[in-house]
Amino acid sequence: QVQLAESGGGLVQTGDSLRLTCEASGRTLSYYEMAWFRQAPGKEREFIGGISGNGDRTLDVDSLKGGFTISRGKDKMTLYLDISNLKREGTGVYYCAGGMVLTEGRNDYYHWGRGTQDTVSS
Prior knowledge:
This protein is mainly β. The protein has strands at about 5, 10-15, 20-25, 35-40, 45-50, 60, 70, 80-85, 90-100, 110, 115-120. It is globular and about 40 Å long. A hairpin with a 5-residue loop joins strand 4 (about 35-40) and strand 5 (about 45-50).
């Protein structure tokens, strides 16, 4: 069983860049298709992007392309989300998630971290 823990959130300004980290314990992340989700205040948790177990494929959201980059650490225990040119609508709790299928569906992922809060101010 894998446990996930996100970090790197905080208070940032519009236009800033940010790196969020998801660290695994208990099992390497190479067993899982991994994804990042964001939950803005008062909204549903939404898929931001995902990456395959060996890192050779990514799944992006067309409307978010250019703003988010997902990558895996060489140690196979870390997942990253690089966010560039942050906007106020980027405020929310960011979650990493692991599953056996690389999809946009929230219900397809069954390992979740507790999330890290990112607040974007103008």
